[in-house]
Amino acid sequence: MILNILKTRFTAVLQALTCGADSYLEMIRPSQDSKFGDFQANMAMPLAKKLGKPPREVAQQIVEQLDIGDICAPPEIAGPGFINLRVNDEFIQTLLLKVIADEERLGITATEPAKRKTYVVDYSGPNVAKPMHVGHIRSTVIGNALTRMLRFCGHHVITDNHLGDWGTQFGMIIHGYKNYLDTEAYQMNPVEELSRLYRLVRQKMDDEQNKETAATVLHETAKLHAGDADNLKIWQEVLPHSQDEINRIYQRLKISFDHTLGESFYQPMLADVVDELHKRGIAVETNGAIGIFFEKEEVPMLIRKSDGAFLYGTTDLATVKYRFDTFKPDAVLYVVDFRQSQHFEHLFKAVRLAGTDNVELTHVRFGTVLGEDGKPFKTRSGDTVGLNGLLDEAEHRAYEIVKENDKDNTPEAALCETARRIGIGAIIYADLSQNRESDYVFSYDKMLAMTGNTATYMQYAFARVQSIFAKGDVDAIKLRQSVGESNGGLTPPALFAVSHPAERALALELLKFGEAIDLALRDYRPNVLTAYLFELSNRYSVFFEQCPVLKAEDESIRTSRLLLCDLTARTLQKGLELLGIETVERM
């Protein structure tokens, strides 16, 4: 909030000195050390090279033309040309009062209508014929967090779960269903039996001595795609069972989609897509196959094999066309792991060759979930860890922690609900707090820790505020309303005591919330928001230790600190909500 205001004030000065002021505005940042002020503007040095002047002279020129007297104390020039800025306490108070009065948005203004965009966010996308596993958690929670943040900023977001419901995995299920089905087991638990069939056929296909199974699976897949009645019947029977299981996981994660359009939805469109690209000369035929060739690349994007079969890329091209025609997006985000990087490079190039340049296409790629051994996370038996089991274990461990710390004989249902929120929140946050392009090591112990950069730490900070208000018998809503009624929410009386360093640091951090969301969306990195929430929790922890709240020295300071506590809790709650994480009242 303050940073954006400062950038606005600097803009006029920089535009008078040079063109391309935006790059220099990015050099206004929060100070790393409070002794140098609250913010620091470092553009004088690079600007001096461009203007052919000494940096301090340029810094002085900027300061002399800068109109920020209502925001900051007089700027100070340090070293070779750093401009140090300290925000006026009165300005902090004024902004805080506006934020407190804004129940829903905490003072964060939505993107102005003229700049709002329509986004299609493609995420999760599991293969339907097999259970969701740990690898699906990253796409699912990253996509959900980006969706929530974009919508909060006022953009129109359309979510589409592009299910893998038509590929080779169904040929495996069909082959297993025809040859190895345990009818009784299937009737009792169809999903579990289908999973067994998938694993069995996979094992047989991986056996180099058994090439017959692999060939049979490909044959069954081809028959399905050709409309074979028996294979279609099996596909139609098993598909709902798999989808039900997937939907149960989404319900646990509190995630829903606007559209769930699988590969099968686009199957009727594939031949037309290939024909159109071929007629336009974008795709060419070589030895009976059709592909799209790119400059300086030997490997083409194959869209039809010589035997007439279509490929993954063909489906994605049909999907792009459908989305462009139906949703009219300004941007399409594909939240898919890094192993698909070349595929999306080719897909985006193909779309550009087809003549679409005005839609942003972004591969929001991410790394791998690793085990303690530094290898992809597996069970002890070597199988990929199922997502349902992962969530179960997180909730179980959270329950043990909650039960052990319960001193009030909390009802069992309440304990279970708290454990659910903590356990699932821990998994979501552990993923989102990583740089999405990096691999990370999965650890229940670390993600459920009460200290450090974990959801549990944030939830604990929120719960601690609730305990203060409960202990003091303070109604937070009435407290906020009384501020607005007595003050109009405009002229700051002596409501905020920001003289103590811990109070001031917390107040400034609270006013950075909107900027954290903007930065997170700039390159689609939710870890920017988690880093902000972690820093806010740290600031609050120091404040809590150093500044008595209920036992403050006088009533005005008590009110001030209660308001800071309440705003901290509301900011943590909204920030976690944007990440898809729920808070808890007690821990």
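The record above closes out task 2.4. Task 2.5 opens with a second protein, given below.
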Amino acid sequence: MRIFSVIMKSIAALTILGLIAMTVGYLYFSRNLPQLNSLADYQPPLVTRVFNDKGELIAEYADEHRILTPFSEIPLRVRNAFLAAEDQQFYEHPGINPARIISAAIANLRAGHTVQGGSTITQQVAKNFLLTPARTYTRKIREAILAYRIEQKFTKDEILYLYLNQIYLGRGSYGVASAAWRYFGKRLDQLTLAEAAMLAGLPKAPTGYAPNLHPKRALMRRNTVLHLMLTSGMASKQDVEKALKEPLKVVPLYENKLTGAYENLVYQQLAQKFGASTLRRQGLTVLVPYDPAAEQAAQHAVRTGDLNLEQRQFYRFPTHHDRSEWPDLLATWKTARQAAQGPLGTDQTMPALVEAVLPNGDLKVNDGLHEWTLSKPHWQWEDYPQDKQDKTQGQTQAQTQAQSQKFNRPRTWIPGDEILLQGDGKGGVRLTQAPSIESALYSVDLQRGTVLARVGGYNYHFGDFDRVSQAERQPGSAFKPFVYATALDEGYTPASILMDTPIVFDNQELDEFWRPENYMNRFAGPVTLRNALEHSRNLASIKLLQNIGVNNFLRALKNYPMHRKFPAQLALALGATEVTLQDLTNSYIVLATGQRWKPVAVQQVQDRTGATLSRSVAGNRCQVCHADPVLAVNDDMKPATPVLDPTTSFLITNLMRGVIKYGTGRGARALGRPAAGKTGTTDKQVDAWFIGYTPQVLTGVWTGKDTPSSMGHSETGAHAALPIWLAAMKAFEKTRPVENFTPPPGIEWVMIDPKTGQPANLKTKYPFLEAFRQGTAPTAASNGQPQTTSPDESSGFYGQGL
């Protein structure tokens, strides 16, 4: 009995000591534990998703790709799959599962390393939200204490909600909704039991069991989870048997449909307004007016146009390969060609090897998959460098060897040359080379007031140099319509007579002079204002600006969104200034509509709760935006500003219709519908432009080299930029009804003699129906010229009081 008493006392003492130790340990490890407030106010980083106005997802931005999903919207089969795989007694234990901990400890001791975890879902929540992932006994004890506290404060459903939205499941996905999208391209409610089981198998090793990386291992793990669901009673035998037979299919990772310079515009506007961190972490929902088909058509037009332009450039010396390199080169290209689908497009290129030059000059070439015979190319080669010695100084040995190879070869194709092939649109190919000329395109939907398309260059990628908004280049004659619109406001009419004759401006103090010239140095003498604009006559335009006054013109330019200060000089009439394609095209909106407004690229932004943070309506449609007076005061909700009289807008548009019908823009007639526009070419064909519009769509195109230099004497706005404009506009207008420009009240039509501007009579050879502001049409006693005094043409250019 005494021994029994001693034993009982010892047990009691040990129990007391154990309780004391546990209490001390609890107090010790409970010090400075994280508070649970972050769990109660769960605001995790979420993916921002961008949709077009058809409801299609077109872009995602995220530091952590997570789609927060309420517990009620997580299907039962998804919840059961994770419970079966991770914590079958989740709804029964108080946060920790001693039996599971002991079982895991025994398994780990036997293996000599960690092979099994004993953490409950609640412990994982404690670790993922409140602790570091360090594998130490101290962290495990703190984790258990936190798990117990979490169970006291939150319901089981709330804990499971946190877990299923927070957990990392590989492939950049956080939470089950994100994983369902990034692995299967589905919403949670669309997942099959097999797919839910596959996701539930990932927490153990997100990379090791990733189905896109290790499909066999992922399949085995999925089947294990399905068996666990069966044995735990979380799925029926029939459902599990069906799921076990389901093949494992993983979709390619989602790629943004919003691409290129348009994506860059949207991203920059969002980042500027909300901050990059908010954009990538706060789960915004963004609505943009993006049309993938229009953007693709614009990109196709630019790329095809640049490749076509390259046909008129000098052929540059190609890379040459020794015969020993051919097999590996062709094998690499073959793999790439097999991955491509369908014939090569006119906007696509692929490398090929010249295998032989036939006696007649034809080239036998191989792209790795096909052999082609190209008719003898008629392409002028670039010149050899004049000073070979200087060309090799300061170069590496490889560069010197390549340069020497260039000097010692003929200026023609030889076997071993690496060339580029371009699709010819007929299933065949033709010889091309990487473009040395760039182009940019910017298009606006005039009816919706939105950005329709935006292409920053031949091979533009998100974040590159955007030639739409960043390249400042001289617009040449594409700037003239602003001079002519100002003249119309000053009282000129389309029938007013201008003198297209030579003139010299000098500065006697500095012994300088300026002698402007027309294209091809031809002069037409007296011409109508219409004729001067249609044929882009430089001298007539300069004298027109001289007559209306440069200072008057500078004041008028403030009505256009050019975002720059212009020099007070007559050379402005020739576009001797620098602007961006974006600003010039947006300024043509004023010419086309008489109003200044900013095209919309981001229509609406909502936060993670669905509350509207921002809404934009183009100024030309803003009569509907004032229904909400709070939103109406926003800068993005301002109505358009009228800056041109409607009659002036119609008259300048009608003049630019003549540019397309009879003048430098005749190539645009192939559009087959009413259109207005203007070509632009700078000195030595450094820059080429075409800006044109229908009543529905306005598009601007710039073409040139990034380092300003001549593209060749034939590369004018009509030959270099207009074909790109035409190809894009055909695609944009394909499904739109044909519309004409509607004259506003106050327009009258009079038949005139297009040579003299006088009213037509029976002797007029080619009478022309011209539009005039009411009351300004010429009569038999006038020539349509406003009663203004023209400056003396012999006065100095620098002494005009500009």
